[in-house]
UniProtKB/TrEMBL annotation:
One of its GO terms (biological process) is response to antibiotic. The keyword Cell membrane applies. This is Transport permease protein. One of its GO terms (cellular component) is ATP-binding cassette (ABC) transporter complex. It comes from Actinophytocola oryzae.
Length: 244
């Protein structure tokens, strides 16, 4: 991978986003708005503190998946990728450039959502705030990487959106948000064990409950980061210049 080309790609994407303030505002503020809505749905700080950590993983993951899959597909359908790939730039350079750009947006998104949750919404945690933000940011990067991978298999923006119920929704349903994973049937528990969002939710919940880091927590972080890197590598292997 050429770092110069990756940074140039990231700079180009950020420049495009700068000229689309409405999209940036939606990406940065939507998770926070959803958490505010959730806080008033529960109407108690205790209930909100029990559910919010998992949703700090789910909301950025889902939003970044949609944004990156549609954006990358649009670059291909408008022949932008085809023109870029006539230059001496590799597929990994392009995908890591997208990841850097959207990763920076995701970090801002997580900082805003976490800050609002801890101050205004009354989220209570026993662990480190910085670890909470790190895990949420890693999960947003995972959504970005999976969105880049999914865009390689879509021909239209409508198809890209349809990948959300196929890739994102099963992970949300099986990550332990609605029911403990240990109480699921063996088949569903096995499926939840192979889905990276489950490990992100487990890591966030362990941070909110305790200030101590154990081997399971480190394992969860490694799995989430490893799945993000694997998705980027697979995305580079399947990236096409344009949609036929």
């Amino acid at each position: 991978m050429n770092v110069t080309f990756a940074l140039a790609t990231a700079r180009r994407i950020l420049t495009q986003l700068r000229h689309d303030p409405r999209t940036v505002a939606l990406m940065v503020l939507l998770p926070s708005l959803l958490l505010v809505l959730l806080r008033f749905v529960f109407n108690t700080e205790q209930a909100f503190s029990a559910a919010a950590p998992a949703l700090l993983a789910v909301f950025p993951f889902a939003i970044m998946f949609i944004v990156t899959s549609i954006t990358t597909l649009r670059e291909r359908t408008t022949a932008t990728l085809e023109r870029l790939m006539t230059l001496p730039i590799g597929k990994l350079d392009l995908l890591f450039g997208y990841t850097i750009a959207f990763g920076l947006v995701a970090i801002v998104q997580v900082l805003v959502a976490t800050g609002i949750s801890l101050t205004w919404l009354g989220l209570e945690i026993d662990g480190s705030v910085w670890l909470l933000m790190l895990i949420a940011a890693l999960d947003a990067l995972l959504g970005t990487a999976l969105g880049l991978l999914a865009s390689a298999f879509a021909r239209t923006e409508f198809q890209a959106v349809q990948f959300m119920p196929a890739i994102v929704m099963p992970q949300i349903l099986l990550c332990g948000l609605f029911a403990p994973r240990s109480s699921m049937t063996p088949a569903l528990e096995w499926l939840s064990d192979v889905m990276p969002l489950s490990y992100a939710v487990d890591a966030l919940e362990s941070v909110t409950r305790s200030n101590e880091l154990d081997g399971v927590f480190v394992r969860n972080l490694v799995i989430v980061a490893g799945c993000a890197v694997l998705a980027l590598v697979l995305g580079a292997a399947t990236l096409r210049r344009r949609t036929p």
